[in-house]
Amino acid sequence: MIFIFILLFLAIDYYVFHAVLLVSKNWSDGWKSTFRFSFWVPTLISIAALLWWAFDNPYSYSASLRNWVITGLFTVYFSKFFAVLFLFAEDIQRGVRYVISLFNNNKPAGLPGPAIARSEFLSQAALIAATIPFGAFTYGIISGAHDYRIRRQTVSLPNLPKAFDGISIGQLSDIHSGSFFNKTAVKGGVEMLLKEKPDVVFFTGDLVNNQTSELKDYFDVFNKVKAPMGVFSVTGNHDYGDYHKWESTDAKAQNFQDLLRAHKELGFDLLQNEHRWLEVDGERIAILGNENWGAGRFAKYGKLDQAYEGTEEAPVKLLLSHDPSHWDAQVRQNYKDIDMMFAGHTHGFQFGVEVGGFKWSPSQYIYKQWAGLYKEDNQYLYVNRGFGYLGYPGRVGIPPEITIVTLKRA
């Protein structure tokens, strides 16, 4: 399979190199040689990476290294794919012109002035088309990965006790501490949250990618997250170690126990299918925490009936549940008195466009609710776009998010 990829990459590069030759044909010898040689440098690095993957054991190295290798390969060849589309379009039109010429002896009328040959124009367009996604993905790593944004929402609840009118809730989600590469920037994001001085903080899952040990270098960053009414958390699908190959079931179980202890040592009140009460001036609201529960293929560790039990008389119920698909699949069906659910999980696909009221991301083809505030009847859902990242170590158009939700009496 690795050698198939190498042949595929070489075929793509050979195809695109024709555009490089054509575009640079009139350049000076120095620039021409530099441009043409530089084109093959990513190819050589990519082949070396694939051979390393084939003849070494990449899983004996850090997950971060593997991730950067995959990201590099994807970015380079995804970008070149756009060049291939332009060049293929040129080959099609050249083929059509050739077929037509077999049946038509008339010469096309010449155009006045020195025009760029159509093949040269398309070659230039092909190379420009390749640089756009490459530049976007590179910028998404350098700048977008840690371009934290505060997103504010005000939600009016008819049964909110007077003592809680104006309470501010900070939400973080999808930290994925094993993916970070800029500790200073991550620390700055946490400081942005703290400057908002929320009354309470919710963390809605995915503290790590797979292993609790990933948190080690960032423990002293996230243990600074505090709030007067507490920090409440739940687990996400990545927190259980389901996507890692463990030496034994005992090792996996120990990893999860380490994760539970990490929440406690961070000062997070982890809710495992249970609830807590917030009380102000003798009035109370309920905070419910559900373990990961996702519609479809994702693991279902959550038991909302257990978290709900004992909160029946609460005037307001706020639910922390990692996966937004839980809202339609179970919450809205069976728990219509849960006023608002806080979720994450989607990351907004870490790629998309949000301009004014327009919002698009590939995530919307998988999740009905994928980013921002949603309302059905008298129930609300807020989907946080995520604080960290997974896989691709960056973000394009969907910056990392710190949410501040203010609750008001309707």
Can you give keywords for this protein?
single chain; 410 residues; alpha/beta; Purple Acid Phosphatase, chain A, domain 2; 6-stranded mixed β-sheet; 9 helices
Structure summary, number of beta strands: 14
Mean pLDDT: 92
Distance N to C terminus: 60 Å
Biggest sheet character: 6 strands, mixed
Whole-number count of domains: 2
- Bin the strand percentage: 15-25%
CATH homologous superfamily of the largest domain, by name? Metallo-dependent phosphatases
**Unreliably modeled segments:** 109-116
- Major sheet strand order: 1-14-2-3-4-5
In N-to-C order, the SSE pattern is HHHHEEHEHEHEEEHEHEEEEEE
Any chance you could write out the topology, listing elements then pairs?
Layout (H helix, E strand, L loop, with lengths): L1 H22 L5 H27 L7 H41 L14 H25 L6 E9 L10 E5 L10 H13 L4 E4 L15 H4 L8 E3 L15 H18 L2 E2 L3 E7 L2 E7 L14 H5 L8 E4 L4 H10 L5 E4 L9 E3 L2 E3 L11 E5 L2 E5 L17 E9 L1
Parallel strand pairs: 1-14, 2-3, 3-4, 4-5, 7-8, 8-9, 9-13
Antiparallel strand pairs: 2-14, 6-7, 10-11, 12-13
Helix pairs in contact: 1-2, 1-3, 1-4, 3-4
Written account of the structure:
Strands 1-14-2-3-4-5 form a six-stranded mixed β-sheet, covered by helices on one side. The chain has a six-stranded mixed β-sheet with strand order 6-7-8-9-13-12. Strands 10-11 form a two-stranded antiparallel sheet. Helix 7 links the parallel strand 4 and strand 5. Helix 1 (2-23) packs across helix 3 (63-103). The relative contact order is 0.13. It has two domains: 2-142, no CATH class; 148-409, Metallo-dependent phosphatases (Purple Acid Phosphatase, chain A, domain 2). Residues 109-116 have low confidence and may be disordered. Helices cover 40% and strands 17% of the residues. By secondary structure, the protein is an alpha/beta fold. The N and C termini lie far apart (60 Å). It is built from nine helices and 14 strands.
